[in-house]
Design a protein that fits this description.
It contains 15 helices and 14 strands. It is α/β, with parallel strands linked by helices and 400 residues long. The strands form two sheets. Strands 3-4-2-1-5-6-7-8 form an eight-stranded mixed sheet, sandwiched between helices. Strands 11-10-9-12-13-14 form a six-stranded parallel sheet, with helices on both faces.
């Protein structure tokens, strides 16, 4: 089967982490004979702003095409400015800009199926192309579709059209599935959780074993977050919690992996609260290095209050690290509160303080939660299962 992916998230020269979960599914299905090609939408400023380098800097990070593990990626620039062009029209603008190139890619690749994410602009493009060329399409919903797009003026109507025309709408958590149902009741919804490729964890497992074997040594309690540094990830609440824990006399070291538009504000908060010696910002790391950081930590805390699922939780849990997440978000599908992780209310640094104190004081509880988490991921969230579910959806799509 040939599958053309329409997306703005896939490992690329500008970000090796972008859409890594999507690439893992692709690699799994490649082993079963599937062929993939990626049409990657890149927003670029319209004329005359495109003449100014500082306005056009982002789009210039991408070449015309690229290849990752045998998958050709075509980078398609379209004129975009959320201040000038409402979000609900982004799909239309993308099609106007790239209809000819998309048609050429389809003629060359001859896909059996279009697979789009996120819903705007890529799902809208799949809808238009699918109708014109009689190619079925599916849409994957992973969070930004609901967290951002659905609340913008006029966008919900466009999302409903995309979802109800698609052969399948694949959500990665029950929370997202419910929200898709609210927007598009007539859509054909499918729930497929992320998985974890445990075969890539060998080195991290060794580091974890060494770290735990030295647990008797006196050292700071290590807390970790791995995420894009945007406000909704809730890192600011971790920092507030660290401030309170330090004042209580807890020996602590908090490492933040990632970068983003909210990074400077988080660093300013760290300075303002006098926490420079307790908090480290290490920027983006390669996936293996991020796993190594997870292996050398005691608690993973990401109080993200707009989270579709979050692979980083699963990866930390797969290493036996107790994870803190937010109730009502996608991670609720994975964490059973108090058994294999901890769920807290959003925007609540005091709950983070209470949880970290409890785990710091009760090493047996911390060990039990970590062991339960590791077993739960191994038994229920392997990539092989995820790939099988996607394969079934794809096969059903083109045979019905």
């Amino acid at each position: 089967m040939r599958v053309l992916i329409l997306t703005n998230m896939y490992p690329n020269p500008a970000s090796a982490h972008s859409g890594i979960w999507l690439h893992e599914i692709v690699k799994g299905l490649q082993k079963k004979g599937y062929q993939f090609r990626v049409a990657f939408s890149v927003p670029a400023p319209p004329f005359p702003f495109s003449n100014f380098r500082k306005w056009n800097e982002f789009s210039q990070l991408f070449p015309a095409n690229h290849e990752v593990d045998g998958v050709q990626i075509d980078f398609l620039r379209y004129y975009s400015s959320y201040k000038l062009i409402p979000h609900r029209h982004q799909g239309t603008v993308f099609m106007l800009n790239q209809r000819k190139n998309l048609s050429s890619i389809i003629e060359d690749f001859k896909p059996d199926l279009l697979w789009a994410q996120p819903s705007l602009p890529n799902g809208w493009a799949a809808k238009k192309l699918g109708k014109k060329l009689c190619i079925p399409y599916v849409v994957a919903v992973h969070g930004a579709d609901i967290n951002e797009s659905a609340t913008l003026p006029g966008a919900a109507r466009k999302l409903r059209l995309v979802y109800e025309t698609a052969k399948s709408v694949i959500s990665i958590s029950q929370r997202l599935d419910r929200e898709v149902k609210n927007i598009a009741p007539a859509s054909n919804r499918q729930l497929v959780h992320f998985g974890v490729d445990l075969s890539t964890f060998d080195e991290a497992v060794k580091i974890r074993h060494h770290y735990l074997s030295n647990a008797h040594l006196k050292k700071p309690l290590r807390i970790l977050s791995v995420s894009n540094l945007i406000e909704s990830k809730g890192i600011q609440y971790n920092i507030q919690a660290i401030s309170k824990l330090v004042r209580k006399g807890l020996s602590i070291e908090y490492t933040i992996v990632g970068d983003g538009v909210f990074g400077n504000e988080l660093k300013d908060m760290t300075v303002r609260l006098g926490l420079i010696e307790y908090i480290k910002f290490v920027g983006r790391l390669s996936h293996p290095l991020a796993l190594e950081e997870m292996a050398k930590t005691d608690i993973f805390s990401l109080p993200s209050y707009q989270e579709g699922m979050g692979m980083v939780y699963l990866e930390a849990m797969a290493l036996g690290v107790p994870a803190i997440g937010i109730s009502g978000q996608g991670i609720e599908d994975v964490i059973e509160n108090g058994k294999n992780g901890v769920l807290i209310d959003p925007h609540d640094p005091d709950s983070i303080v209470d949880t970290i104190e409890q785990l710091a004081d009760d090493s047996e509880l911390k060990k039990l939660i970590g062991s339960n988490a590791k077993l739960h991921i191994q038994q229920n969230f392997a990539w092989e299962t995820t790939c099988e579910k996607f394969e079934n959806i794809f096969r059903n799509t083109i045979t019905t």
